[in-house]
## 1
Amino acid sequence: MVDLIKDLVALGGTIILRHEFGTTELRGNDFIVRDTGSWLTLYHGTCENPEQRSHLHLRKDSYKFAEIVENPGFTPFVAFWKSENREEAVGEKKKPTFAIYFPSFYSWNNGDKTPLTENQETFKKWCESNDSTWKFS
């Protein structure tokens, strides 16, 4: 799981953590992952100290399964689940509690949905050399 998260974070997409009361989004292409035993910390690499700016502490043993989710017209993401039955999904659309989105497939400047072909190609190449589901012990 650690290697997958590091690989996804390096792409510069969006990191999402949800629960039934709200959603946190971390954006930027400067996040790094620090492995400290039972925890992962995702924070801005431009910080002298991870506690200095916005960051995320994630328990490594929280998730046992991950999968790429693709919906037409939207940017794909990797959903992390406690188990393959996805019981912890939250919200009306049953979204994962933790997800990492690939770099956006679309630019929304001026309200237009302009395809970003470079990001779509990055995703395609990434999929060619990676699995689409993962099981963690």
Note: The chain has one domain: 2-135.
## 2
Amino acid sequence: MIHADLPAWALVIVGLFLLVGSALTLIGCLGLLHLDTFYKRVHAPTLGTTLGGGLVLLASMLYFSVEGSRFVAHEIVIAVCMIVTTPITFLTLMQAVRHRERTAQGADAPPPVVARKASEKQDSA
């Protein structure tokens, strides 16, 4: 869907953003399939989603802003939601897995970071 009235510079930039964003998202998906442990697997899609999706949103903003000759802000709301929810989901998943591993290991598991810092403060006093 290429419009003749859209400037060539806008089409080139939109195409580059789409190409790089799609490539980063694909690399994140391949990292999810290729990496072996859960801790390694979580990083690749998180980075791919944030960077790749952000570039696709920038391409969409630029395309529809230039085409309609007005600023399109729908993508900003999507980007803010994506930027906020992706790291929170990542941290929640990591904490759930760490809790599950500590529970499964029993007394051999290292204490949570907060408890470890508190015990280090008491030992140094």
Note: The chain has a mean pLDDT of 81.
## 3
Amino acid sequence: MNAFHRFVTGALLCAAATFALADDLHGPHYPDVVSSARGIETSSAYVLLPSSVPGSMTVNHCTNCKSTTLSVTDKTTFFVGSRQVPFAEFRGRLAGLTPTFMMVYAAVNGPVALSIVLSAPPIRSR
């Protein structure tokens, strides 16, 4: 083997070793992340809540969008901003409110509402 062949062989071996080591330099390998909830962005104008819990709710993304029906259970949580509130208080905040952004988090494995978040300013105490 002449000098050129030794150089090319050495260069290829170095390149292969570099690629093999580069995979280890990216840090630890973690298992795939699997989400247990899907978020539905909507407005309070497109949500029809049940009168009591348990019950079912209807959610639309927009006026002409296909609606989604979700079960609301005793385990469904309700938030006004970042504060968790009881269902009755949540419904009360929606009454007479101008259309406001909402996030509905539903289970990926079934039509169940896990949590409902109303993006609203906190109530000011007097």
Note: Residues 37-118 form one domain.
